[in-house]
Amino acid sequence: MLASREPVPLARGALLIAKEEYPDLKVDHYVDRLSELAREAEPIVSAGNDTVEKVQLLSQFLFEQKGFEGNRDAFSDPRNSFLNDVIERRLGIPITLSVIYLEVGRRLGLNLYGVSFPTHFLVKAVDERGELLIDPFSGGIILTLEQVKAKLAEIYRQPVELHPAMLKSAGARQILVRMLRNLKGIYTGASDWARSLSALDRILMLDPRAVEELAERGQVYERLECFKAALDDFQSFLSLAPEHPAAEVAREAVLRLVRQVSLIN
Length: 265
Known about the structure:
The protein is α+β, with helices and mostly antiparallel strands. The chain has helices at residues 10-21, 27-45, 51-65, 83-89, 94-107, 145-156, 172-189, 193-206, 211-223, 227-240, 247-264; strands spanning 69-70, 91-92, 112-115, 122-127, 130-135, 141-143, 169-170.
């Protein structure tokens, strides 16, 4: 179970997300697989003279020698979001490949952080000389500032100012929430409301004040005809965010659901 307050280990948390889909998944086995990758990479990466060289050697190890790569052909395949599948298949999306990069690199002493860049998760390496931005989805290349700006313009289809907040380090809890949001989007797009609800539950467990997800869970509960649970979520949403742009829709939902619940009772 993902905890709502205490620190969450990144790899273990990611594997617990996968365990919802694979109940028999052996979490410790895959944590050990990450440690094995680090042990195999250690003599290669330690040959680097500085952070730049070590990052380049780690990228060569993971993406050339071990064959990890971005799944461009089936980006929305849920397996790209399950860390055990990514380890087995060597295919993933930016955030899961970044988790592997972080977990292996940190075991080797690299000072690595996740970067919750818009729509495309990145990694950064930090040392006394500054920061390096790394794109695990593109083979672990080191990005220049101009490449980051170009990626941002590509995402928004127009020039967009690069704000420092876009390159801010993301903690384990934030990374896991973003992984779950990816899954939630996939399930919602497929009208798989039961799995969508499960993802929303876990997002709110990790971040109880994620008000958009609270309102969205209310919508899913209503779709599933769990009217009392839907009412509770919309009322909680309004108490937390009475001025939110979706507040009027939530108030209409409360009126509708109060009538629905009264009919049941």
